Structure formats: C-alpha cells, structure tokens
Amino acid sequence: MAKNSFPLPKVYGLLEPGPVVLVTTAGKDGANIMTQSWHTMIEFEPPLVGCVISNRNHSFDILKATKECVINIPTVELAEKVVGCGNTSGRNIDKFKHFGLTPVAASCVQAPLIDECYASLECKVVDGKMVTRYNFFILEVLKAWIDPSMKHPRTIHHLGKGAFMVAGKTIKLPSRMK
Amino acid sequence: MAKNSFPLPKVYGLLEPGPVVLVTTAGKDGANIMTQSWHTMIEFEPPLVGCVISNRNHSFDILKATKECVINIPTVELAEKVVGCGNTSGRNIDKFKHFGLTPVAASCVQAPLIDECYASLECKVVDGKMVTRYNFFILEVLKAWIDPSMKHPRTIHHLGKGAFMVAGKTIKLPSRMK
Asked: How far are the Cα atoms of A21, A32, B39, B135 from residue A70, in angstroms, in the given order?
C-alpha cells in the first residue's frame, strides 16, 4: 500500500477516535505484532501517545528493551487478522508469516510498519515511569505514514470479547476545538 | 432516561471504542461539563481510566481540588450540545442550563450524572502523579450506570476540528481477548 508522510500535528486525529491498533516491535528474535485498544493521545505536538502494553505480552519485554514500536491502524478488511494477532503469542509464532502481513522497513525505528494498515506511526518510549505500576508507556510519534487514497477508513473499535464497532459515517459540526 | 447499575468488570467495553465523553465536575461555584476524547482504559478491575484534562480548562481546577468526576457517554443525538460544551467555558456560563442538559445526583461522588447520556461512570482520582507533567489523571470507576434499552449506542468519535465519526454496525469475531 503506497503511503505518504503524514504531518505530525495531525496525528491526534488518527488515534483520538479510538481504533484498535496493531503495535509492532522488533526484538532479537524477530518482529512481533500485538493487538491493542488501550491508548490515548497525551499531547498534540510533538504527538505523545499513552499506551498500555500488558507485562503478560511478549511485546512488553521487547518494547521495554528496545524502547521502540510502530502503531499501525487497520481497517475492517483486516478484522480477522487483527483478532488472530490478539489470540496468539509471538512467543510461539511469527505473526507476520502466520497471518500473511507484510513488514516494511520504518525510517526512524527498527520495528516494521505493517504494509496492509492504512496508517503507521513510528514511536519511541519517552517516559517509562508508569510502566511498573500500570504497564503504561508514554510514546513520542517520530514519523507518521498514511495511505492518501483512504478518505474514510473503516476503522474497528473493540467493544469487548471479539465484538467490534465498525466506523460509520462522518458528520461535521462548527467547532473551535482542535 | 432510566438507568440501571452496570457491572464494573464490563466498564472497559464502554470506553475502549474511544467515544467522545462529557466529563462533569462539581466545584464550589456549581457543576461543570467538559467535552473530552483523550482517555484510555488502564485496568479491568477495579476499572481504572487514564484521562487528560488540560490545565487550561475550568474542569482541571475543580478535578484537582475535589478529586471526583463523572464520565458521561453521549450518543449522536447530543452532538450539537457536545460541541457546544467544547466551544465554551464553565468560567463564563452554566453549561447545564445553557445547553439544556439535566444534572442527576450521583451515588458516590458530588459531580452530577448527565441524564441525557446513555451511560455514566462515577470516578475518583486515585493517582495524580502524572498531572503536573501531562495533565493526566488516573481515575477509578466507583459506580457505573447504563440505559438498558440502548442496545447499539451511536457514540461519536472525534476526528479533529469538529468532524466526528458516528459508530456504525457491530461485527463479532471468535476472540479469546477480554
């Protein structure tokens, strides 16, 4: 999927609606993918993202060691692979191979982008003080990529236990909010 | 709107999809409402929510002083009022009166529920260590309420600058994820 560089001050608009994301990391035993929904914007610019990665997950150890990851945003077409990545562990399988996802080299971090996702955010950990207590990492987005042809991405939003809300129509109201 | 008590272990399913919320607080000059999208689940049980409330907002001072708030979840029918609450400040107006929203007494906190919202989460601040640096509050949900008749709430999800994605259809996939 051909992607353009995406302006960092606009990144909040990608994560603020709360999509399920696929977090990629690259450890010494290869790259991994983790399905994740517990994230929030923390700051507009530079864009900071707060993200819970449980210490029960393989990705936790890699992220803690490498301090780098990529947040990839899938659309509904990838829903089965998203759930597949959530049901399995990178300790046992290579999720890229197993689910037929394509790693693409990032520009600022070792972790790969997922080619099939419509947007990808290259991140580094900038604050790990909340990791021990809450598994909560503060990430700075260093570089963002987006498929410019995707005008209305049908992102998926986890409602629990495999139920997902699929992004519906967009409305516009006169707002002074950023 | 008649609401039932909602089990705390299920609260994550309300916030995980990333809806815009209306955070209510009660200060010495009365109750206030703030439109907010920067929140994430932090823990399932007891449910912990991380929430950015900017120190530029009137609600910041009240939340910091009282350590209590309610997270109310609106649906698309309230979109204009949601934007209105985001465009105005509680320093100048009584938002409940101005936007015709109805405060209802909560059971565990002084901040009111918003009757017109389909779900409300009574919260207290349990960790303020990230407030100075990130305006980030860790809240514990003490009590949750939901309108049991609302099977497919059309929540709204902020895309930036007054554009909102409206919750679309729900899909279900075989998942082992909580």
From this structure: 10, 10, 20, 24
B21 with B36: CB under 8 angstroms?
yes
pLDDT in tens, chain A (178 residues): 889 999 999 999 999 999 999 999 999 989 999 999 999 999 999 999 999 999 999 999 999 999 999 999 999 999 999 999 999 999 999 999 999 999 999 999 999 999 999 999 999 999 999 999 999 999 999 999 999 999 899 999 999 999 999 999 999 999 888 8
Tell me the chain A residues in contact with residue B175 when contact means C-beta distances shorter than 8 Å.
83, 86-87, 161-162
Position of tokens 């977090």? A23
Task: Name which of A51, A164, A167 is nearest B165 (Cβ-Cβ).
Answer: A167
Q: What is the distance in angstroms between the CA of the first residue and the CA of the last residue of chain A?
A: 29
Q: Which ipTM did the prediction report?
A: 0.96
- Predicted structure pTM score: 0.97
Cα B148 from Cα B151, distance rounded (Å): 7
Q: Which two tokens stand for residue A28?
A: 């010494």
CA distance B108 to B105: 9
Both tokens of A164, joined, read 């997902």
| Cα separation, B114 vs B74, whole angstroms | 9
3-class state of residue B84 by DSSP: helix
Interface test with A, best of B34, B82, B161, B172 (most A CBs within 10 A): B161
d(CA A152, CA B96): 34
Residue A84, φ and ψ in degrees, nearest 5: -60, -45
Residue burial B67-91, b: 16+ Cβ < 10 Å; e: rest = bbbbbbbbbbebbebbbbbbebebe
Name the token pair of A98: 């197993």
- B60 phi, psi to nearest 5 deg: -60, -50
Min CA distance, A107 vs chain B (Å)?
26
